[in-house]
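May I ask for whichever protein you like with its backbone structure tokens?
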Amino acid sequence: MRYELPEELMRTDRSNALKPVKIGILGLGTVGGGTVNVLTRNAGEIARRAGRHIEIGAACARDLGRKRSCDTSGFRLVSDPFALVEDPDIDVVVELIGGVSPAKELILNAIEHHKHVVTANKALVAIHGNELFDAAQRQGVVVAFEAAVAGGISIIKAIREGLAGNRIESLAGIINGTGNYILTSMRDQGTTFAGALAEAQKLGYAEEDPTFDIEGIDAAHKLTILAAIAFGIPLQFDRVYTEGISGITIDDIRQAEELGYRVKHLGIAKRNGELIELRVHPTLIPYRRLIANVDGIMNAVLVNGDAVGPTLHYGAGAGADPTASSVVADIVDVVRALTTDPNNRVPHLAFQADAISHIPVAHPDEFETAYFLSMEAIDRPGVLAEVTRIFGELNISIEAILQKEPVATQRAHVIILTQRTREKNMNEALRKLEQLDSILGRVNRIRVEHLSYSAHDA
């Protein structure tokens, strides 16, 4: 059923209000098919929100004969993405093919042809977003990218617009559902990392090559974007410290549980004096924190603003309909902005283009956090004294020490929780610990964040 626009709206702008906005979709995979379904299913509701009808003029796919998850009978299917981008009948280009190339070239081409762009491409935005946004600014068009981070949560709009009155102090997010599913499975089912990964692949949560997910690259792309809009800094993917979860063991998870913590793969961006920390790594969080109880493939982002305090944004981080929800929301925003002055639109990175700040990004040595350390030691008098002496020399305060009963091999398992310290001090402590003949093998380190923000905490 076609929604009819109100008579008063048609009277005020009959030439534009009656003319549908035509979009061209690049890619009809999972997200592209979901976008078609949402636009079709909710056409009336979307028109009421946008003030204009939105129609799919064409879509591009590599295999035109492939069976789709959506009905393609209502629009043209083409195989040449550049022809779609340059089609004068297309008003908005929706890029859902992923990857850096040819997506970058297609978006720049669309911008050059004065077309607005909607994209779900987090890697492209994180790596080349500064260039894309500069080009869009020059041409007076919008590049919208809500679906690039955390699927259907709309976290970009929340930070960029809903929290615009705040000085953002920090954010911490579970922003990769695959990694979160693996860690949840390891905890709940006692599965090894390899077993949990295999199960995630079987269920379609992990790719055949899961490197981007399990090594933190996907989360680093998303953190780059979140940090830029939170702090008003350029996109700096190459400055994000990135550590994956492939080294996490069942013992790590069980020991963390015994101490009242859960292991989560977090993306963290925070102010550290005059620096900004950007880091992705496994993290121990007190189990009572809401974000510690975000399980399976779900995502959550905890944002701490000076006025509002901590806010938690939770929802599905991937999937056809959740991601399509954000894509369509961006399309609606773009349609609303078609007739507005380009200088009065919401800035791409939340802050006005001439007010982006070049606050230095901290070197990993300058990170400040607490630590969970796990090591095997020879069970003999004086070993703990040697360990604590090293920490004392480097001004690292110990929160707790737990020594497991020695096994028949006369090895003791020692767990240490420290208070907050500089990463460079901890690196030196680990180097010295691993040189002791009483410490057997590598000392395992997982960072600890308590995330206990109040409304006026830094």
Notes: Residues 8-15 have pLDDT under 50 and may be disordered. The first strand starts at residue 21 and ends at 26. The chain has 16 helices and 17 strands. The radius of gyration is 25 Å.
